[in-house]
Design brief:
Strand 9 and strand 10 form a beta hairpin. This protein is of the alpha/beta class. It contains 9 helices and 11 strands. The chain folds into 2 domains: 114 residues, NAD(P)-binding Rossmann-like Domain (Rossmann fold, 3-Layer(aba) Sandwich), CATH 3.40.50.720; 92 residues, Alpha-Beta Plaits. A 6-stranded parallel beta sheet has the order 3-2-1-4-5-6, sandwiched between helices. The chain has a 5-stranded antiparallel beta sheet with strand order 7-8-11-9-10.
Length: 221
């Protein structure tokens, strides 16, 4: 008998705009989410939206343990106060949370967070700025995300020049050395699409590749 894998549980510390967005999105996707903030107004605002919301100081180890933070699979630290942000991150790792994702205000802050054990750093303002800028470049670009220092992921709508062609005929892989990892057709998303699949006007292609190759593709779509 195959045992069903337990769904991940998430805790979000700091319920400002960024933290609230993360918490509500996870909740909408069907996951259990605990929200924590020192501001009673933020907590009350989400009281009926999340699985569990509490007013607490997450920079105190005893408080974290009393909340059962050590039992969560992923913790997101979205606290704006620098000291509380870093102390919460450090304590979450010390009590054994497997994955701690932290919002950083700048590169220096990000480096400090890495040194104290943060598993993933999010630069929300920088990343959003990049995505908006790339969206402005072309009407075809739906989204743009830097996955690492060298790799980007871009979502573009199929332009008229590619409509009616299959993936092989589009020459995207051979010309730009990028990979089309998925195609969204209406409400359906096809992962690892067949090379002979025909592209339709309005379809959305999810493309991954090195920054320089993605940039070259951006200039022609």
């Amino acid at each position: 008998m195959i045992k069903k894998q337990r769904e991940k549980q998430y805790a979000v510390f700091g319920l400002g705009r960024f933290g609230t967005s993360v918490a509500l999105t996870l909740n909408e996707l069907g996951y259990q989410v605990m929200g924590v903030d020192t501001d009673e107004d933020n907590v009350q605002r989400l009281a009926h939206e999340l699985t569990h919301v509490v007013t607490a100081d997450s920079s105190d180890e005893r408080t974290l343990r009393s909340l059962g933070a050590q039992n969560f699979d992923v913790a997101v630290v979205a606290i704006g106060d620098l000291e509380a942000n870093m102390l919460t991150t450090l304590l979450l790792k010390e009590i054994g949370v497997p994955v701690v994702v932290v919002k950083a205000i700048n590169q220096v802050h990000g480096k400090m967070l890495k040194k104290i054990g943060a598993d993933k750093i999010v630069y929300s303002e920088r990343d959003m700025g990049q995505r908006v800028a790339h969206n402005l470049i072309s009407n075809s670009i739906v989204d743009y995300i830097e996955l690492s220092d060298t790799i980007s992921l871009m979502s573009i709508t199929v332009p008229p020049s590619l409509a009616g062609k299959n993936l092989i005929e589009s020459n995207l892989r051979s010309r730009y050395n990028v990979n089309i990892v998925a195609i969204k057709h209406g409400s359906e998303t096809l992962v690892n699409p067949d090379p002979k699949m025909v592209l339709n006007l309005g379809d959305e292609m999810i493309i991954i590749g090195e920054h320089s190759n993605i940039k070259a593709l951006e200039e022609v779509v």
